[in-house]
Design goal:
The complex is a heterodimer. In chain A, 28% of the residues lie in helices and 21% in strands. Chain A has helices spanning 25-32, 88-96, 105-118, 124-130, 141-155, 184-188, 224-227, 277-286, 300-303, 330-336, 379-389, 417-427, 437-443, 482-493, 524-542, 546-553, 572-582, 613-624; strands spanning 4-10, 13-19, 51-54, 57-60, 73-75, 204-210, 216-222, 232-236, 261-262, 268-274, 288-293, 319-327, 339-347, 359-364, 370-374, 397-401, 431-434, 450-458, 464-476, 501-510. By secondary structure, chain B is α+β, with helices and mostly antiparallel strands. In chain B, strand 8 and strand 9 form a beta hairpin. The chains are: A alpha+beta, B alpha+beta.
């Protein structure tokens, strides 16, 4: 394998170094030069966290073979603040709060820098267009665009430099004020180290062998060939787990690696620690697993039928959790009503798609403490579970939460930390695992897909007399947060409405799909999607304004919820008023208005997406000619 | 993950052919590389081990760019961003800047090449319908010699071309059409970085009054295994005067060509809408008379 010699100017310094011919510029910068400011979010040119300047032109370093850096001048995000002082744009990002998890921000700052270099007077639409190759998942684009506009205006002298300064906090006021984030400078500069940015001397690289089957018995795993390979330091399977092998949030039904059988495509079966990533990958290919495929079930309704394939012995009916709520008598409520409306609503699985794929580092420290560094959203719970699984006193297990590059609930599950702990214990070396985007999507929890049948009884004046809701959720192969999600879905499902007769049943069901778990709103989204959609339909049937039907039924101060919680104050009516006003709502029952719509072309309503802001000036000129 | 034993950057065609010969059957020719690493990932080719990557982007012949009154010669390694940045090129190829602005994003356009877009032969390649509308011919060179063929014949199906072992696509030659108005219509799942579900290139030349269609060129992609020129629609429109009834009839004509594997009904709707929008936008940019292109028609489809 003839190595390449790369001679280039990187962040102002001339370098001359060997590189592997298959390396990407991103690998060279991050792994060989330890310039970890730019991140890898997708490895496929979709997200832009890796954007760097090559001879002054912004490019995605995950798509560039390192050989293309030969003779080039490269600037990574570190180049923007070489002296330690943030650039104008970085200061503007700081000022506008344009960094939340921070993982996309180095790339965003680079794209913003490129945009203002290309056109120092770019308007908001052109800024949007020029930042189009970069994805953010939690900061939100508006703050980012605000920051670029602020920097543009300061740069052009339209605003004074003091526009970048913090105002409120300087006067010692914090509550109810806009305060700049204290961690923003570390994020806008790329200095903050996420788990995948951390290296330790002697660190090994971990790769995970995953199941190609949705449901299969593991007949035999032969790791001998992998273990014999040069550079392989350790291979683990479920046989290496010393203690009670199960983790979860409510029920500990998931082994660290598949034990006896696999239950979904992408489930971990074995893991390898090797001296480099390529060796670890080749070792995975050398592990032989004999599977005996089992009948699988992919639909929760089918999984509930007698005779359906059973995933877990403890749950022969495949029910992970059923949450029932009973208030009054719904049948009586229907009998009293003027109108009964029944519909079925479904929602799909949703991937969190945080910009930071899962990553973690583990080592056994000088005091024999098994230490795991990862962006886990639930470290104290993970610590207790892992201690039981690896049979250590809890004082010998330590979890360190690295900066979370977006989580949204998706990093609550101890899906890989156990493998890292076992490999660190087995190899007595620091080990690191960094997921690819594909691995993150295939193996980690999703939002529960749901099917909700809702039957509602109403009086002609809009009062709801009864609400009967049944939701079946696909919980996938393991329990994870399903129980809590079903509970929250049931508690909040009937909505913030005073309804005398309520019956709610939510079911989380095991299937051979990717496990479902925690995701922002935690179950409330699915049932409330049904209830709120249903209210619009009922409003149409009753000839009522959709806001009005909600006001008529709204819980008010002092209300008792369907689960008997007394609410001191209820802000629903104020919220409805605010939304009605902000949305430019046209009062009345829902109708299809077609081209009679009056809310288009208003200054405060955003126009449809279009491209070509940079042509606008040219066309204006053409029109004038 | 893409693993290669060697990454070669030949400085001449002769060096490239020698490298291709030395690694026959075990190499991959690359230029911009924007689809190379994504290709070697899970869900597509997976981990790929290859003997050599041969990067042809620094070969002088592939970087040539010539524009005269009649023809444009584009070296295969011309980055897509050039169609936006180079005013001479933009004038000669009126729908290319519109295509380029919808092509991936600013960063990938700086790297991706027109040759790579053609050779990849995606059924939804954005650059190909524009070039087809410009009567493009590809130049294929090997150690044995040179041949040319129309781009419409070069792309033979999804990801397949007439390129033979040992051959390189070195350049594209196409008509310079500075007197035409051009448009490019595209729809996909995201504004940037998205593969077209349907895309359409339209070029129109009007008479001096801006009322009659002297010439029209139309090509469409994303509706079947390969991009298509629409000669029958062109014939129907050529010489006729610009008017709502004529354009609407023309818009209906290619609807029946939709033969993609998925979402056919949706694509039929899109094709009709794009035909109208593409023709109207191109006609407007060709200097259409306001009386011919009524505000009502523009408002409905533009």
């Amino acid at each position: 394998m003839p190595d390449l010699r790369i001679e280039a100017t990187i962040n102002g310094k001339k370098i001359s170094r060997q590189a592997k011919p298959h390396q990407r510029l991103l690998d060279f910068l991050r792994d060989d030069l330890n310039l970890t400011g730019n991140k890898e979010g997708c490895g496929a040119g979709e997200c832009g966290t890796c954007s760097v300047f090559v001879n002054g032109v912004l490019m995605k370093s995950c798509l560039l073979p390192v050989a293309k850096a030969q003779g080039a001048t490269i600037e990574s995000v570190e180049a923007l603040a070489l002296t330690g002082e943030l650039s104008l744009l970085q200061k503007a990002f700081h000022k506008m709060g344009a960094s939340q998890c921070g993982y996309c921000i180095p790339g965003m700052v680079m794209a913003a820098t490129a945009a203002l270099r290309a056109n120092p007077f770019a308007g908001r639409e052109e800024i949007k267009e020029r930042l189009g190759g970069n994805i953010c998942r939690c900061t939100g684009y508006q703050k980012i665009f605000d920051a670029v506009e602020l920097a543009r205006d300061v740069q052009n002298g339209r605003l004074p430099a003091t526009a970048l300064a913090e105002i409120d906090a300087e006067q010692g006021e914090f509550i109810g004020k806009n305060v700049r984030r204290i961690d923003a400078p570390s994020k806008v500069s790329g200095r903050l180290k996420y788990a995948g940015d951390i290296i330790m001397p002697g660190m090994l690289h971990v790769q995970v062998l995953r199941s190609p089957h949705a449901h299969a018995r593991i007949v035999k795993i032969d790791t001998s060939a992998a273990e014999a390979m040069d550079g392989v330091e350790g291979v683990i399977t479920s046989a290496d787990v010393p203690g009670e092998d199960g983790f979860g949030v409510f029920v500990n039904d998931q082994p660290i690696m598949a034990r006896g059988k696999v239950r979904y495509v992408g489930e971990a079966v074995a893991a390898v620690a090797a001296q480099d990533l390529l060796t670890a990958k080749r070792a995975l290919a050398a592990i032989k697993v004999d599977y005996e495929p089992l009948p699988a079930v992919f639909d929760p309704d089918e999984a509930m039928q007698p005779g359906a394939p059973v995933l877990h012995d403890y749950a022969p009916d495949n029910v992970t959790k059923h949450i029932p709520i009973r208030v009054g008598d719904v049948e009586l409520g229907f009998a009293q009503s003027d109108l009964v409306v029944e519909e079925t609503y479904s929602t799909q699985a949703i991937e969190h798609a945080y910009l930071e794929p899962e990553a973690g580092l583990a080592y056994v420290d000088h005091d024999d403490v098994v230490t795991i560094v990862s962006p886990s959203q639930n470290i104290t719970h993970h610590r207790a579970m892992l201690a039981r699984i690896i049979v250590k006193p809890i004082s010998k297990v330590r979890f360190i939460m690295s900066p979370v590059g977006g989580g949204f609930g998706g990093k609550e599950d101890m899906i890989y930390q156990g493998m890292l702990a076992l490999l660190a214990m087995k190899t007595r070396a620091p080990v690191r695992l960094v997921f690819t985007r594909e691995e993150s999507i295939i193996s980690t929890a999703k939002r529960h897909p749901s099917r909700t049948t809702l039957r509602m009884g109403l009086m002609r004046d809009g009062r709801i007399t009864a609400s009967h809701m049944t939701m079946i959720c696909d919980g996938g192969a393991y329990g994870l947060s399903t129980e809590g999600v079903m509970r929250k879905a049931a508690i909040l499902g009937a909505g913030p409405y005073a309804i005398p007769n309520v019956r709610v049943d939510t079911y989380g069901i095991y299937t051979n799909n990717t496990p479902s778990g925690a995701f922002r709103s935690f179950g409330a989204l699915q049932t409330q999607f049904a209830t709120e959609s249903h209210l619009d339909i009922c409003a149409e049937r009753l000839g009522l304004d959709p806001f009005e039907i909600r006001r008529i039924n709204a819980m008010r101060d002092g209300a008792i919820t369907h689960t008997k919680q007394k609410l001191g104050s209820v802000s629903l009516l104020r919220t409805l008023d605010a939304v009605e006003q902000a949305s430019g709502w046209e009062q009345g029952a829902p109708v299809s208005r077609g081209n009679k719509r009056r809310d288009l072309d208003r200054a405060d309503i955003r126009p449809p997406v279009a491209l070509g802001a940079r042509f606008a000036a040219v066309e204006k000129q053409e029109a004038a000619e | 993950m893409l693993i290669c034993d060697e990454y070669m950057t030949p400085a001449s065609l002769a060096e490239a052919f020698a490298a291709m010969d030395a690694h026959r059957g075990r190499h991959r020719v690359v230029a911009g590389c924007t689809d190379t690493f994504p290709w070697a990932r899970e869900g597509r080719a997976g981990d790929v081990e290859i003997s050599a990557l041969i990067d042809v982007s620094r070969i002088p012949e592939l970087n040539e760019l010539r524009v005269d009154d009649k023809r444009v010669r584009l070296g295969a390694a011309t980055p897509i961003q050039r169609f936006l940045d180079d005013a001479t090129l933009a004038r000669a190829l009126p729908c290319m800047p519109r295509c380029a602005v919808w092509f991936a994003d600013d960063q990938i356009r700086a790297q991706a090449t027109i040759g790579g877009n053609i050779v990849n032969a995606s059924p939804a390649a954005d650059g190909t319908p524009c070039l087809i509308a410009h009567e493009a011919e590809v130049e294929l060179v090997s150690a044995r010699g040179k041949r040319t063929m129309p781009l419409t014949d070069f792309v033979t199906g999804p990801n397949t071309t007439a390129l033979q072992e040992g051959e390189l696509l070195t350049a594209v030659e196409c008509d310079a059409l500075p007197a035409y108005g051009g448009s490019f219509e595209k729809v996909g799942h995201r504004r940037s970085l998205v593969i077209s579900l349907v895309c359409l290139a339209a070029l129109i030349k009007l008479d001096k009054q801006g009322r009659a269609i002297e010439d029209v060129r139309l090509a469409i992609a994303g509706i079947g295994p390969r991009p298509l020129r629409l000669p029958e629609v062109e014939k129907f429109l050529k010489g006729s005067s610009l008017g709502a009834a004529k354009l609407e009839q023309a818009a209906d004509m290619p609807v029946s060509l939709v033969a993609s594997r998925t979402r056919q009904d949706y694509r039929r709707d899109v094709v009709r809408g794009f035909m109208l929008r593409g023709l109207i936008n191109a006609a407007r940019r060709a200097g259409a008379d306001n009386a011919a292109l009524t505000p009502e028609l523009e408002a409905a489809y533009a």
